[in-house]
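Class prep. Write one:
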Amino acid sequence: MPVISMFYGILVYMYAFDNRRHHLPHFHCEYGDDSAVVSILDGEVLEGSLPKSKMKLVQAWLEIHREDLQADWKLAIAGQPVMRIKPLE
C-alpha cells in the first residue's frame, strides 16, 4: 500500500487498480486502529471512520490537495506508482 502522505499521526494511501469496489476516485486513511475511505470528489466518507478531530484534518488536507489526489488516482488505477503529496502543515 503506497503511502502518499503522513501528518498528525494520519497515514494516507492509495492502492493500485482500486476502482472496482467503490467505483469513485478515493483514498484510504488510517489513524491508530481507525480507518476510512474518503471520496476525492466531495470528501464523503465511503467506508469506515476516523475520530472527528482527525477527519477534520483529512478534509482540510483534501481541500488543499484535491488536484494532486486526482492526478495520483489516475496513476493508481493505471497501475503506475503514485506521487507523494505534502502533509498538512
User: Anything to note?
Assistant: The beta strands are 3-7, 10-13, 26-31, 34-39, 45-49. The CA atoms of residues 46 and 83 lie 23 Å apart. The mean pLDDT is 93.
